[in-house]
Amino acid sequence: MKGQRIKAAWRGQADCSGCAIRDLALFADLMEQDFNLIHLPIEEEVLPAGRVIYNAGDPGRALFTVRSGLVKLVQYLADGTQRIVRLLRAGDTVGLEAILSQPYAHTAVVLHPALVCKIPREVVERLSVETPRLHHQLMQRWSEAVNRADRWLTALSTGSARARVARLLLLLAEAAEVGENSAAPPECALFSREDIGAMLGVTTETASRTIAEFRRQGVISENRSNLFACDMEALRAIAGE
Amino acid sequence: MKGQRIKAAWRGQADCSGCAIRDLALFADLMEQDFNLIHLPIEEEVLPAGRVIYNAGDPGRALFTVRSGLVKLVQYLADGTQRIVRLLRAGDTVGLEAILSQPYAHTAVVLHPALVCKIPREVVERLSVETPRLHHQLMQRWSEAVNRADRWLTALSTGSARARVARLLLLLAEAAEVGENSAAPPECALFSREDIGAMLGVTTETASRTIAEFRRQGVISENRSNLFACDMEALRAIAGE
DNA sequence: CGTTGTTTTGATCCGCGTCAAAATGAGTGG
DNA sequence: CCACTCATTTTGACGCGGATCAAAACAACG
């Protein structure tokens, strides 16, 4: 088994049944026998920051499970500006629409270096016919996507710029906090001010100014480049207007 | 058949196989035999404007198909203010999360008097096990919900208040335009300025002011109370900043 | 060490939020 | 039918937040 995993990794091909994050992933509920139905290779890919996974409008030939790192979903507006509509982390599924034979609805771009599993559409289609266990997971994923979209709107596109930035920091810090040593103040890795602006619906300058202000006030402090320690209490106070 | 439908309507119980909007609805792909699997009553309900269909947090015991009218999904924020995250029309499904045994994620409220079919969770669960035809429809519905959520964000929560209002009017008018006599300028039925504000993330006053301005400029004109004829070209120009 | 892209900061202006008051409309009871 | 209340809409005046334009400050890289 161990040998199998190493070999699989070596040729860039995943061993799903032995996956370390399977309980988080799309295939969480599958039984051993189900894996025999996978007859197409599921490839593991190492993706550097900035890499485009797919473009909006591309035919959806595969969906992706994020194993580590961070991915953004971008929607381009009529006037050419872009808006980030979702962030995806370990365990999340990117490009679900592929299983409906639809073109991708967004452009997916890597924000923090990521490891993803590329699952051909046909694999999910086949499993989808054979086992109801996958169905439930798929529904859960869709429902989760809707919830995230709605929360994105209410949390990150509502209220003052200060509050929005605070909520974004909380979101990132709380995600990083999971499985962290509890005593130390939670950290969160930020990204370009332009991206932050595109997430919050504000300009790059406003994003920069607000973060600078938080730093001066001691609400956050930069440990390494773009890695901030967050005073959660203070942020929560700001987030709630 | 005709007699059956009338009888069904009379006791408030739907005959899905003979439904006039079935091709739009969740049960579009079902075959005759599938309907025999429905052993619980599907009730038709006539709902006046303002009626709450369910509240956020309620256990999801049923989902609803909108046959006519308009329904809003509302999300309440921490500070008590509310934000409207989606509008649902004829053919749309409300409360999909019920089939995942989850509590409702939003509060659903009738905006324009509506006719809805209340489908018990168990009916969908049962059908879901028996026929893959429903699966596909469910996925489509979920995917459509995500798309709507994303477009809502980019179209109605981005740009100036003028542009947002224009886009909302376009959205409503284009929906009404379907199956309309093409020559006449499309009309759209508006609702309270407060709701408009909650949809666009602006204040009631700004919503009112913007609509008043559009009226003065002749971009829209009020035929009846809250029923506006729209100059689509002019609106499109404003919508694109 | 210059070149290029990102971040920060500054100065200015306008859109929109805020508070307040008038105008309009719907419903109720005398 | 009119007077009165109450809710919604419209309009006004004002101030602030954030967009915009522009220029430094900085960081990355050849």
In short:
The first copy, chain A, has 8 helices and 9 strands. Chain A has 241 residues and is α+β, with helices and mostly antiparallel strands.
Folded structure, characterized:
In chain A, helix 3 packs across helix 4 (132-156) and helix 5 packs across helix 8. Chain A is globular and about 55 Å long. Chain A has helices spanning 2-10, 32-35, 121-130, 132-156, 161-177, 193-200, 204-216, 232-239, and strands at residues 43-47, 52-54, 62-76, 82-88, 93-94, 107-120, 187-189, 220-224, 227-230. In chain A, the strands form two sheets. In chain A, strands 1, 2, 3, 4, 5 and 6 form a six-stranded antiparallel β-sheet that branches. Chain A has a three-stranded antiparallel β-sheet with strand order 7-9-8. In chain A, a hairpin with a 5-residue loop joins strand 3 (62-76) and strand 4 (82-88). The first copy, chain A, is an alpha+beta fold and 241 residues long. Chain A contains eight helices and nine strands. At the A-B interface, helix 4 of A face helix 4 of B. The structure holds a DNA duplex (30 and 30 nucleotides). Chains A, B: One of its GO terms (cellular component) is cytosol.
Indicate the topology:
2 copies of one chain form a homodimer.
Chain A (H helix, E strand, L loop, with lengths): L1 H9 L21 H4 L7 E5 L4 E3 L7 E15 L5 E7 L4 E2 L12 E14 H10 L1 H25 L4 H17 L9 E3 L3 H8 L3 H13 L3 E5 L2 E4 L1 H8 L2
Antiparallel strand pairs in A: 1-6, 2-6, 3-4, 3-5, 3-6, 7-9, 8-9
The structure holds a DNA duplex (30 and 30 nucleotides).
The run of helices and strands of chain A is HHEEEEEEHHHEHHEEH
CATH level 3 topology of the largest domain in chain A: Jelly Rolls
Fraction of residues in H or I helices of chain A: 25-40%
CATH superfamily of the largest domain in chain A: Jelly Rolls
Q: For the largest interface in this structure, which chains are involved and how many residues does each contribute?
A: A-B, 36 and 36 residues
Compute the number of helices of chain A. 8
Shape of chain A: globular
Q: How much of the residues of chain A is beta strand, in percent?
A: 15-25%
Class based on secondary structure composition and strand pairing of chain A: alpha+beta
Number of domains of chain A: 2
CATH class membership of the largest domain in chain A: Mainly Beta
State the oligomer.
Answer: homodimer
How can the largest sheet of chain A be summarized?
6 strands, antiparallel
Could you tell me the mean pLDDT of chain A? 91
How many β-strand stretches of chain A? 9
CATH architecture of the largest domain in chain A: Sandwich
> What does the radius of gyration of chain A come to?
19 Å
Low-confidence stretches of chain A: 1-11
